């Protein structure tokens, strides 16, 4: 299928959630979770033609993941089923004082992605390709795929979007910092948290982040509940985040990216892109799910 608005590339795992202390042997519910597919689902909810490219295992978890993303309106024909490697898994222990999130993704099917998977992206003729800093941490082959997709000499003239999304559980800041900075410098649109950038690059303020990424055409620095700053060429725009009663934070950054990218695809000015990002993130923050379930209303419209 050609004419896709956005292709999102990266691993999605099966999610097992415990409503009580995991150590007590409580019953687990099964869901899905992955930054890039979360973004693809949110873009689909916002009315865009979105595709997700990845690999899953030939197992029940892989079928659960792919089915859930497909039912959300996302094109999953670029998802390869790997008979030799399992679908990644993570467990959420939501009880007070629980273990938090436990990952079981080493040697997963998605970690075997390589530059050969790029053709699945370009064959869809996307206007935009969205990646995150999670993927290069999975394996050297995955890192090569991200580098290749960010190379402006590859594929079509699609915009390259990169969410830094540093996960300390995958790699330490001292190792990840230089790699993620290099990848961000190759993108057209970059998303990064202010605190995340400080941890990786020693940049305490949004303007400091811009100073280390001056060549990026569009840079969005998110500062949690405070708001977000967009450096769009020579223009700098800040939009405060509306107050939200937070139920769970997981997935809110992916929804923010989708809201902003939706505005970009629609040709909206920077302030409205940021407002749509905040609105989408707010919908996820108010729920226990990782993905955008309802279409947010942009403030002021």
From TrEMBL:
Annotated SUPFAM superfamilies: Ribokinase-like
CDD domains linked: KdgK
A Pfam family per the record: PfkB
Top EC class for this record: transferase
Keyword field: Kinase, Transferase
E.C. code: 2.7.1.45
Keyword Metal-binding: no
InterPro entries in the cross-refs: Carb_kinase_PfkB-like (IPR052700), PfkB_dom (IPR011611), Ribokinase-like (IPR029056)
Keyword Hydrolase among UniProt keywords: no
Domain Carbohydrate kinase PfkB stretches: 6-292
GO molecular function, one term: 2-dehydro-3-deoxygluconokinase activity
Protein family according to the UniProt entry: Belongs to the carbohydrate kinase PfkB family.
PANTHER family cross-referenced by the UniProt entry: 2-DEHYDRO-3-DEOXYGLUCONOKINASE_2-DEHYDRO-3-DEOXYGALACTONOKINASE (PTHR43320:SF2), SUGAR KINASE (PTHR43320)
Listed name of the protein: 2-dehydro-3-deoxygluconokinase
């Amino acid at each position: 299928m050609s004419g896709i608005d956005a292709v999102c590339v990266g691993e999605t795992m099966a999610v097992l959630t415990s409503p009580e202390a995991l150590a007590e042997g409580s019953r687990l519910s099964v869901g899905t979770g992955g930054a890039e597919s979360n973004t693809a689902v949110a873009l689909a909810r916002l009315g865009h033609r979105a595709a997700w490219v990845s690999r899953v295992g030939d197992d029940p978890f892989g079928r659960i993941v792919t089915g859930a993303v497909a039912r959300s309106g996302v094109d999953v024909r670029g998802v390869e089923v790997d008979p030799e490697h399992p679908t990644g898994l993570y467990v959420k222990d939501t009880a007070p004082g629980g273990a938090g999130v436990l990952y079981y993704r080493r040697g997963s099917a998605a970690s075997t992605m390589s530059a050969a998977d790029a053709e699945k992206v370009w064959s869809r003729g996307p206007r935009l390709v969205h990646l995150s800093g999670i993927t290069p941490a999975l394996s050297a082959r995955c890192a090569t795929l991200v580098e290749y997709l960010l190379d402006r000499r590859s594929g079509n003239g699609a915009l390259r979007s990169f969410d830094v999304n540093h996960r300390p559980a995958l790699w330490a800041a001292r190792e990840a910092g230089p790699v993620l900075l290099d990848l961000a410098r190759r993108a057209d649109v970059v998303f990064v948290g202010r605190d995340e950038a400080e941890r990786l690059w020693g940049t305490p303020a949004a303007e400091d982040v811009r100073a280390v990424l001056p060549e990026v055409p569009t840079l969005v620095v998110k500062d949690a509940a405070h708001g977000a700053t967009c450096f769009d060429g020579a223009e700098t725009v800040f939009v405060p985040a509306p107050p939200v009663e937070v139920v769970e934070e997981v997935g809110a950054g992916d929804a923010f990216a989708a809201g902003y990218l939706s505005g970009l695809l629609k040709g909206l000015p920077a302030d409205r892109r940021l407002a749509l990002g905040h609105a989408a993130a707010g919908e996820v923050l108010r729920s226990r799910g990782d993905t955008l379930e309802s279409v947010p209303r942009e403030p002021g419209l």
